[in-house]
Amino acid sequence: MFQIAKEEEKGVYLNFLNFLINDSIYLLDESLNKILELKELEAEMSNTAEWERRPAQERQERTRLFQSQENIIRIDMKLANEDVSMLAFTSEQITAPFLLPEMVERVASMLNYFLLQLVGPQRKSLSLKDPEKYEFRPKQLLKQIVYIYVHLAKGDTENIFPAAISKDGRSYNEQLFSAAADVLRRIGEDGRVIREFIELGAKAKVAASEAMDTEAVLGEIPDEFLDPIQDGTLIQSALSFYRLMVVWLVGLVGGFKMPLPSSCPMEFASMPEHFLEDAMELLIFASRIPKALDGVLLDDFMNFIIMFMGSPDFIRNPYLRAKMVEVLNCWMPRRSGSSNTATLFEGHQLSLEYLVRNLLKLYVDIEFTGSHTQ
């Protein structure tokens, strides 16, 4: 299997790697957010006097929510641990796909984000009374993350990985590497691994410094040389076009309402699939360019995705429905008020009318088999 993956580089293995990264980010991010919510509930329930003053029905509902959060954390964290372990294992065997131009910055951002959560300033907020109960093993998780860093650094013959790490403006901080190294020493990790990890951190620091020096020398880039795509203007125009397209498609089935008609209109069924795929790919690409989403109304895309990604009678291609899930993971955290994708998703007006049990079953089927059973 590894030989095939090495030879094809950009084929099935790259798709598998993308899937694994998406799953890891989603599961770990959701688990950590749920831990914070669980601790809030714990604090409420531990204040006995205040808790007893609440109506019995409210206490019952909050207790059920607490138990539900416990189950979600346990399941998601178990799956996240398995995904990260698989990434650590496969990155030792095959590094080339991780370091492709279209992958390396995404991989680096993922690792930096996990590192920030595990050893950053907010790490104490994730402490639990009984972490094993929830499959939460932060020390083991940190080791796996560091292994991935080290494995990719070893396979980085062109020295592009340190620069990718330092370019991550959201999570990268040079101090995280020394903080992680301190934790690794305390838990007795192999000194060689720690040294290689520290060396990578030093290279990333140098890359960050060089990038700043280059920017200072170049100064402000004249407007005529600015990339219109990076500036977001062109993408905003494209998003506006595709927004009109999804509004038109929704109009074919009677507007933003549930349930969907019992039969798919001929006009909708005749839509070329590449139109929808192009729209989803554009949303994913736009999520990486901060200015691209400024002033663009995404609610129409949101409504469309929630209405149709769980509707196999209307969109039969499981790849397209899975692509819709990827879009939600990419850009929903950018919406104001919360970074918790699940909360935003479940709180949407259409989700409240139509979701959870059937959609979860559908997504699990597609994710693991590529087809649906409902």
Automatic annotation (TrEMBL):
Q: Which UniProt key words apply to this protein?
A: Nucleus, Transferase, Ubl conjugation pathway
Subcellular location(s) of the protein: Nucleus
Q: What is its main location?
A: nucleus
Question: What's an example GO cellular component term for this entry?
Answer: ubiquitin ligase complex
Residue stretches making up the Ubiquitin conjugation factor E4 core domain: 3-204, 229-374
Q: Which Pfam families match?
A: Ufd2P_core
Q: In which pathway does it act?
A: Protein modification; protein ubiquitination
Listed under GO biological process in this entry are: ERAD pathway; protein polyubiquitination; ubiquitin-dependent protein catabolic process
Q: What is this protein called?
A: Ubiquitin conjugation factor e4
Gene name, per UniProt, is PUB1_0
